[in-house]
Amino acid sequence: YSNKGCIPLFCRIVQLRGSIFPKALMVAVPCGFLSALIKVAATREWIIVAEDLKIVTNNAAWTAFSALVGFLVVFRTSQAYTRFWAGCSATHGMRMEWFNACCIFCSYCRISKADEEKIFEFQGKLIRLFSLMHAAALAELEEINVADAEPSDLAAFEVEVIDPQGLDSDTLSKIKSSSSKVELLYAWIQMLIVECVDAQIVAVPPPVLSTALRLIAEGMNAFHDALRITYIPFPFPYAQTCDCLLVLHWIMTPLIIEEWVTNAIWAAILTFLQVFIVQALNFIAAEIEIPFGTDANDLDGCDMQAEINGHLTMLLGSKTNRLPELTPHAITDFDDAFLPSRQSLMFVFDSIQDTEFGQSDRNNMAFSKTKSGSSHRDSFS
User: Fold this and answer.
1) What is the pTM of this model?
2) Which of 116, 166, 199, 364 has its CA 20 to 30 A from that of 16?
3) Which pLDDT tens digit goes with each residue over 253-276?
4) CA distance 136 to 220
5) Closest Cα to residue 303, out of 381, 365, 373, 360?
6) CA Rg, the chain, in Å?
7) Nearest CA to 290 among 98, 147, 132?
8) Are 218 and 99 in contact (CB under 8 A)?
9) Three-state DSSP state, 19
10) CB half-sphere exposure, 1, CA atoms < 13 A
11) How far apart are CA 158 and CA 86, in angstroms?
């Protein structure tokens, strides 16, 4: 969705995909009607409540109760958003660390003295395994959040990976049958690197090798951080207390509002607003506290996988293999504070007439399933 402009504002209000409004309305609307019914019954003396049986004679007690319910629900929502953001950070960190490690090994392949065919084979295996490992990680995060789901029903298994058919059938068979796909691919990558370093196919100095292996391990740590968010749910006693207070709030609000208003319509409106707000916040917390799965507000792995695929294939592309070179007229004296050749980046791009401007691939990426009315899985069918 868009955050800019007036029209997107109204579009967000009426958007149903990813919205918790329908759930909150199903709880708040009956409560509002109940409040109006109680007020009508009291006005027409269908029900008579003695003065000594009035629920609230001082609004301070109700204000304190409402504040307690609001505080507990808002705190739960803030903790749920913290978990959601931690999940986002973990998946982004996982992708960044694995790409950085792959970039290091592909860079040192440039100075290798080994046969070019062996170097290309190592690079081809490496980017395929990294792509498969990232896809398997996203699939596992979604799989463990969907109860009793078949692998074919999970959108994460539909994401594209880099030329999996380039690997032999025995490798693909072992990946398919493995119950720990991410760990298997992680071990294969480590073994492949160690063997190729020992065979001098990639000439990586020991300090750099340890750094690159540490990056792969940190990516695996980020993956397990994301798993931890899934494995450890929001504390049940806190959620149970919030739910009990929300039920009490739903029951008490119509009875309290009836005593403070003189019109049944206002009783319905004020009751609806109070119940709708706290219920909406509670549904938001329940929706976002685990950011992995198939819900509309969960993270979408398709764009994440497309991003790392693009970066990995870029490492072996022809544009990357050619390093930048200086022209004979390049400035070599940088002591002058007013260099004669300070130009904007767009000015330089405009001077190149035979090349189209390449926009960032991230422009159309949102990593959220609420960005469109259809899932990525639908695009494959």
Assistant:
1) 0.82
2) 364
3) 998 888 888 889 999 999 999 999
4) 12
5) 365
6) 29
7) 147
8) no
9) coil
10) 19
11) 25
